[in-house]
Design a protein that fits this description.
The protein has about 200 residues and is an alpha+beta fold. The protein is about 45% helix and about 25% strand. The radius of gyration is 18 Å and the shape is globular.
Length: about 200
């Protein structure tokens, strides 16, 4: 079973290191990008208490939604390369702010307080809890996580955010490794095709 819930706390209220390591190992154990994105987003949605979640990756100069999931379904859609600019299921303004600033945005009651109360998506959808943060690798932004809960305010507690931050560095390394692996696979396929053409 790939689903891992690690919101358990020790008696002292500190984070359960054993369960954090378990989740980290689950993420680091995947080299194929598709499986990594699926497993990673499931872990993030469950441990954040999110209703829905998105993971964005940059391709050339544009950002695309490469994974999206919902807590009501075990299914995570991956590698659909959906354009950020055309998406109506998340706040483009918040995502762009995080991409530019490389800073986390945490909104406990998005439609009522915070700097995004006038955001087009926030005004229309009236979401409650939003958490959006960058995945950084050696100071460069390699991905963006967007999590939302429309049922409750103050969902993304400090403990939950701390867990996600613990996992961020492992996610960054795993994403880089997966992209490198995919690039190598593509080169091997191209080379094999060239050899086959020469032999034909």
């Amino acid at each position: 079973d790939d689903s891992i819930v690690i919101t358990k706390m020790t008696n002292s209220g500190s984070l359960d290191i054993h369960t954090i390591l378990k989740a980290s190992q689950a993420i680091s154990g995947e080299i194929q990008l598709e499986r990594l994105l699926e497993k990673m987003l499931q872990i993030l949605i469950e441990n954040a208490g999110a209703e829905k979640g998105f993971f964005l990756l940059k391709e050339k100069e544009n950002w695309y939604i490469q994974a999206e999931g919902n807590s009501n379904s075990d299914k995570v859609e991956v590698l659909k390369a959906k354009s950020l600019e055309d998406n109506i299921h998340l706040s483009i303004g918040i995502v762009n702010y995080v991409i530019r600033s490389k800073k986390m945005i945490l909104l406990d009651n998005a439609s009522q307080k915070g700097i995004f109360t006038n955001d087009e998506y926030v005004k229309e959808k009236q979401p409650k809890s939003i958490l959006c943060y960058p995945i950084l690798y050696r100071g460069n932004i390699v991905g963006v996580v967007y999590l939302e809960n429309n049922l409750s305010t103050n969902v993304f507690t400090s403990h939950r955010v701390e867990i996600l931050q613990f996992l961020s560095s492992q996610i960054a390394i795993s994403i880089e490794n997966s992209l490198l692996y995919a690039s190598m696979e593509q080169k091997v396929m191209e080379r094999t095709s060239q050899v086959n053409e020469m032999l034909a």
